[in-house]
Amino acid sequence: MDRPLEATPKRQFRRVAAWIYAVVNPILESLQDEVSLLESGNLTWRSSSSRCERIRNIQEYVESKQWPNYFDFRAEHDLFSKSFEGHDASLKSLNAIASETYASLLSSQMFSEILNVHLAAYEEQRSSIGPHAPSFNNSRGDIPKVFAENIINNVESLPPHYLYSPLWNFRSKELLGFRNSSGFNFTALHNAVAILSQMSVALKTSLEDHRLSLSRGFDVPAAPVTGILFEE
Amino acid sequence: MLGPPTLILDTGPLWELILYSAVHNLRFRKLESELLYLKTKDSFNKLSEFIAFSKGRVTTPHVVSEISFRIVRTEEKSKASLWNLVYDEFRSMGMDEELFKLLLMPPESVARIGAVDVSIFQLGANYSFSEAIVLSLDNALIAECNDAGIIAKHISEVIT
Predict the structure, then answer these.
(1) Can you spell out the DSSP letters for B66-80?
(2) 0.80 exceeded by the pTM?
(3) Nearest to A97 by CA among A165, A27, A45, A40
(4) What whole-number distance in Å separates Cα of residue A75 and Cα of residue A78?
(5) B40 is a domain residue
(6) What confidence tens digit (pLDDT) does each residue in B72-120 have?
(7) Is residue A67 less than 8 Å (CB to CB) from chain B?
(8) Shortest Cα distance from A131 to chain B (angstroms)?
(9) Beta B151-154 vs B132-136: how paired, if at all?
């Protein structure tokens, strides 16, 4: 859908600047963070919202006051519009699978038993762990929920000031072993992460290429530069 | 001191913890320049260890209001995630809150150091000596506390 732009490039360079600064650049920044999070396995998935906190639909990467420019960009770029939809569909799938994995862990007798073993070993060795290691014997509370979320988000260790850190850090590597299990939906979760990761990398590369092409075609810098004004 | 003290957290150290987590766990790279003290993993670990040593962690709703003000200044698209992060941090560290009503605060103190600092000061004054430590970035508040026999530390004392 580039034809209208090619027809009157000089008359539309401010529109192109709006796309680059208000739409493409924020999406690129967010995709970079997204790829980095996906590579580390930190999905930032939260059970309270059943979604990834920092991996969002493409539209959410753009400030809401710039959504008219986002819609304008989509109207002129059918292929990117489809790529955005593909990204969002993959993310929706990832969120759904993470929710299933979470539910699967919490309903599992095996998960519960392994947590009990972990808790018993911790209580037995608590005095040797350190001075800040509290007993969790009477406060099992949210431990299964917190730990299931940590496993999904590949949290290797918690900072010492978090209440559950002594217990989680005690043997987190063993608990993270659930991620290698063929059960609990982890295979589907890893596949969903890989698919979204591939899409995000491809989308990022395409957007970078397109930004370069827009910059060349319309003489618009890739980022705003103080002193360069867009005046006719 | 009979045991570990309760830690009373002022806005500055709490905001540093929230920013650190936002930058390093949630990749809010743009906020990195706002970190004043927790610029390295080592300084974060030292603060985290210091907090871990406390018996409990408490702050005031006035401090939450100041955090709110700081979040309001961030990009609109980040606000919801930052608020969720504040909830996560408070929950994860077992943060408690105690309310001090303005009408019960001494007006001359409020005029001198502000209602937020007075709320932290009064919280500290509720504990016996050495049962609580105030952690702040505010030298005026720290001096006010120390003059009144309330132990107060600057974050730089903890992370160096």
Answers:
(1) HHHHHHHTS-GGGHH
(2) yes
(3) A45
(4) 7
(5) yes
(6) 999 898 999 999 999 999 999 999 999 999 999 999 999 999 999 999 9
(7) no
(8) 8
(9) parallel
Specify the higher pLDDT residue, B114 or A141: B114
Q: What is the CATH number of the domain that holds B56?
A: 3.40.50.1010
Residue B86 lies in a domain: yes
Q: Are A81 and A176 in contact (CB under 8 A)?
A: no
**Residue of A128, A150, A131, A125 whose CA lies nearest to B50:** A131
Residue B1 resides in a domain = no
A165 contacts A49 by C-beta, under 8 angstroms: no
Residue B114 within a domain: yes
Helices B115-125 and B61-72, interaxial angle, to 10°? 150
**CB-CB neighbors (< 8 A) of B45 in chain A:** 159-160
Q: What's the domain range around B142?
A: 6-159
Number of structural domains chain B divides into: 1
**Rounded CA separation B10/B62 (Å):** 9
Q: Give yes or no for residue A77 having a pLDDT over 80.
A: yes
DSSP E strands: which ranges in A9-112?
45-46, 51-52
The answer to whether the CB atoms of A54 and B29 lie below 8 A apart is no
Residue type at position A226 = T
Residue A192, phi then psi, degrees to nearest 5? -65, -40
Radius of gyration of chain A (CA): 23
Instruction: Using the CB atoms, write b or e for B42-58: b if 16+ within 10 Å.
Output: ebbebbbebbbebeebb
Report, as an integer, the average pLDDT of B126-147: 94
Specify whether the CB–CB gap between A14 and A229 falls below 8 A.
Answer: no
Predicted pLDDT at A107:
95
Q: Is A201 on the interface with B (CB under 8 A)?
A: no
Interface of A with B in 118-177 (CB under 8 A): 131-132, 158-165
Phi, psi of B150, rounded to the nearest 5 degrees: -100, 125
